[in-house]
Amino acid sequence: MEVIMMSNQTQGSARDRIDAILDENSFVEIGAMVTARSTDFNMSDNAVPSDGVITGYGSVEGIPVYIYSQDASVMNGSVGEMHAKKIVNIYDKAIKTGVPVIALVDCAGLRLQESTDALNAFGSIYRKQSLASGVIPQITAVYGNCGGGMAVMAAMSDFTFMEKENAKLFVNSPNALDGNYTAKLDTASAKFQSEESGVADFVGTADEIAEQIRTLVAFLPVNNVDDGAVADVTDNLNRVCADIESEMPDAALALADIADDGMFIEVKKNYAKSVVTGFIKLDGMTIGAVANRTAVFDENGKAAEKFDAVLTSRAAKKAASFVTYCDAFDIPVLTLTNVKGFSATVCSEKSIASNVAALTKAFAGATVPRVNVVVGDAMGSAYVAMNSKATGADIEFAWPQASIGMMDSKLAAKIMYADEISKAADPNALIAEKAAEYDKLQTSVQSAAARGYVDAVIEPADTRKYLISAFEMLASKDETVPYKKHSSK
């Protein structure tokens, strides 16, 4: 493995990866004397230090965490019985104490020499991850191999990082897929897993991964009952966002403009880019943000990629998962809505109904403070699914030029006045006339506000101060929902 220098730490060993992420001198190793107990296949003749995984605890920006790091120099980091039990021990302690778990993965898979002992112990990790889900944050960083059952472990984490050159994440290797091979399509690569499957939330060098993990941990609550300590704020709470309208096509830029000190942590940046998800702080409070995006701007402010203002199946899936996470950890949710409808493709039809249903349930079932800002078009049931008041948003703002309604006014006019238009001397003029009338009566923000669907029409530049005020007011929100074990689907 290539040696990459990072903050004076060599990223070549399991221990070095731990030191690069944790606060200096904070790591305390536990289970260092544990070793493999299998004697089959001459295993007793092999030294298996720490059974191939270093486990312990430390801190990130002063926040306590448990951490484990697989050692590829010991039997390729393969998971044996005791290796798995060490990880389970970490989870037991993390769940009891209510602190995050960070997993640093470089693993050849299950240790074949230990067969069912290893398999049973491996399954116990799945159970602990499942029990920890929604209770403590789980973060996985993949530096080398993460194949088979280990890929499932990574996907069960809340956030997955992949080293962009050497990390390989796969259930089946590229060469095991019919008609495929690595040189044709590397389905195990960080590029594929971040852009196509959406398993990888973040991709970067070992240096960047360590920095991103530290930043992310500082943003997240340590557990699901943490009251969320508010960070000190130096940014002006009444700061005007003068450029936000021009930034809005690339919602990542708009969210950074709204955020304290311009900091936005984007999650799944490379997947389903027509929706942006991530974390900002407003007046020191962590907020989960979801926004429709119609462009990705390059460093020169030019649109490098463009998207229609529609909700795609992948985007709905991405947003639903993010909102569910925020609700589990009591993180308030902000949405910036600009959507005209749903993506209309054969491929999309395979999954869009179920994925939009998941998004709708995620918003409708969330009990955290929820604020929606309609920044462009908000049309039809795609708008309803995007954190509308109808699904329980606590406050809805709208920019003056936004539109809220069933469908585009010209299309509505063509349907409603089809007979008149077909007989008109100037059909286009009649369509324009009827569309303007429809806009005034049905799709303007003033019309929506008159019906109580919009709480306030605000100037775009004032968005930050309105959002800060809204989330401060909602901080004490206490909402109950009908008792149930969990959703049935």
TrEMBL record:
SUPFAM superfamilies associated with the record: ClpP/crotonase
Domain CoA carboxyltransferase C-terminal: 236-473
Signal peptide interval: none
Residue ranges annotated for the CoA carboxyltransferase N-terminal domain, each copy included: 1-174
Membrane-crossing segments per the record: none
Lineage: Bacteria, Bacillati, Bacillota, Clostridia, Eubacteriales
Official protein name in the record: Carboxyl transferase
A GO term, aspect molecular function: propionyl-CoA carboxylase activity
InterPro entries, per the entry: AccD/PCCB, AcCoA_carboxyl_beta, ClpP/crotonase-like_dom_sf, COA_CT_C, COA_CT_N
Entries under Pfam families matching the protein: Carboxyl_trans
GO cellular component: acetyl-CoA carboxylase complex
